[in-house]
Amino acid sequence: MTLSLLTLTMAYLLGSIPFGYLLVLVFRHQDIRATGSGNIGATNVARSGGKALGLLTLLLDALKGYLAVIIAMHLAPSTLHGPSPLAVAAAVAAVLGHVFPVWLGFRGGKGIATALGVFVALVPWVALAALGLFILVVATTRLVSLGSILAAISIPLFALLLVPRRSAALLAGLTCISLVSIIKHRANIVRLLHGTESRFGSNKNPDPTDKKVNA
How far apart, in whole angstroms, are the C-alpha atoms of residue 36 and residue 71? Predict the structure, then answer.
């Protein structure tokens, strides 16, 4: 019990490191929460702080999720039925850490990059398939939010198709992470339905009310 609690706490704290906020603060001397959509994730960092910082944010946010799961898998190795329940729980904790970071008053990002990292650790082929879908959607529409939402929706479906040995805990964990990411995109979903969502590379700023939802 103590080991599990320590592992989940570690996963949450690792996931809660606000790399986007820190990078923009250090290199741009700005609070990323006060610019663009107010989100601390890679997309807003790229729009507000530059593509290089956006890419670095993406990599670091994914890496923290990956490391959280790898550490948990080392402490509780996988079984014949797939990743251990502790590893799956650590994945959920890492994503929740990014979405609700203690360091920023529990107001974080949408969890897509961190989710990608945990998916790579847990179910690499599923992560690759979802990433391919994301790239395809963004390349054809330039709507990062749409790509993120569809990729999140696809995760449990790809798991059913590509993971022969899958436990109920794994499917529940993947579904939970996907739902959290989709819920965090609710303001984007509204704008997509109204045709007002900004496209990546455009000069149009996202709806400022998004800060209240996604900050």
Answer: 35
